[in-house]
Amino acid sequence: MAQGTKSGSVPSIFIDGESGTTGLQIVERLQGRADIALRSLPPELRKDPSAKRDIFAEADAVVLCLPDDAAKEATSLAASLGSQAPKLLDASTAHRVDPDWTYGFAEMAPGQAPAIAASPRVSNPGCYPTGGIALLRPLVEAGILPKDFPVTVNAVSGYSGGGKSMIAAYEGEGAPSFELYGLSLEHKHLPELQLYSGLSRRPIFVPSVGDFRQGMLVSVPLHLDVLPGRPAPADLQAALEKHYAGAEWVRVAPAEANGKLEPEALNNTNGLELRVFGNAKRQQAVLVARLDNLGKGASGAAVQNLELMLGIGAANRMGKAA
Ligand SMILES: NC(=O)C1=CN([C@@H]2O[C@H](COP(=O)(O)OP(=O)(O)OC[C@H]3O[C@@H](n4cnc5c(N)ncnc54)[C@H](OP(=O)(O)O)[C@@H]3O)[C@@H](O)[C@H]2O)C=CC1
Ligand SMILES: CC(=O)N[C@@H](CCC(=O)OP(=O)(O)O)C(=O)O
Description:
Layout: E1 12-16, H1 21-30, E2 37-39, H2 49-58, E3 61-64, H3 68-79, E4 87-90, E5 102-103, H4 112-118, E6 121-123, H5 127-141, E7 152-158, H6 163-171, E8 178-180, H7 190-197, E9 204-210, E10 216-223, H8 233-243, E11 250-252, E12 272-279, E13 284-291, H9 295-310
Parallel strand pairs: 1-2, 1-3, 3-4, 4-6, 5-6, 7-9, 11-12
Antiparallel strand pairs: 7-10, 8-9, 10-13, 12-13
Helix pairs in contact: 1-9, 4-9, 5-7
Ligand 2 binds at residues 92-93, 126-127, 157, 161-162, 166, 188-189, 207, 209, 297.
């Protein structure tokens, strides 16, 4: 049963930025559902403040799929509606470490799904932090990884991660087939990656983009012999398995025997797979997360959060298997 709606028997949702990469994917995932009413603005009015104000006032929830500045403006617009303000789910980077917002990673900690369900303002995690936090936080919480450990996170994304402009560049002429970036070590995902992983020392983050549309791998190399108690790869695997036991969309999988992993296997799903590739003899391990940057890294997580916020669909599962 849906929570109280402003009008109608099912909650209404408006996606601000519905024609962008993330917005379109959320529309696709929600279209045809009988337990929500999806609202839309005519294309010529999608940036019109007055039209937006009217549709915000009618909606039970608004998903912001906008650049950061536009997401902040939309948040002010919602706030100006007072008691008629819709619940907000922000897919941008604008509010992810803002204490007034709830971080929308339901499986991150036992209380997170209920916190999302109760919150009027939820920020959808970045695609890379989804993988990095999923790997690191359980190990920090288990005391395997000290908070101040010098962590490095490497990652590769499909080019849809850069939105409409990067898609146009990669599907046009002259784009590189692979590129490291973020080498100024100031990538916009670092604050949320550090905060929600529970690290006191800023990690080094080296993202890259390849000539494939969507899909992502996030990896963390670790020297096990300098960790307290010198854990074996199996200890890391056990800590991850314990944390995600029963989770519906997060799976701790066995490492591939051939020592290889490709990034596209979870495309168009809300799945997140975690693996520990280890060499006990060398006392080394590489943790790897695989996800769809547009799925669990964006639109899949957005739908999961909306269900929690509106009390619909799989909401009662609270991030765990039914
Ligand atoms: N792509 C990805 O993998 C992920 C993206 N995100 C985040 O989601 C947000 C959207 O990204 P993405 O979908 O990739 O970006 P896109 O560039 O593909 O889409 C952004 C959309 O927002 C529209 N827009 C811009 N300003 C306004 C406004 N004031 N009012 C209404 N619409 C507006 C744009 O229209 P126009 O082009 O006409 O300006 C465009 O359609 C960003 O904050 C991004 O960081 C989050 C997770 C993953
Ligand atoms: C390949 C690529 O350019 N990726 C984007 C991140 C995509 C994403 O998830 O960004 P937000 O969720 O924070 O908007 C980047 O590195 O800026």
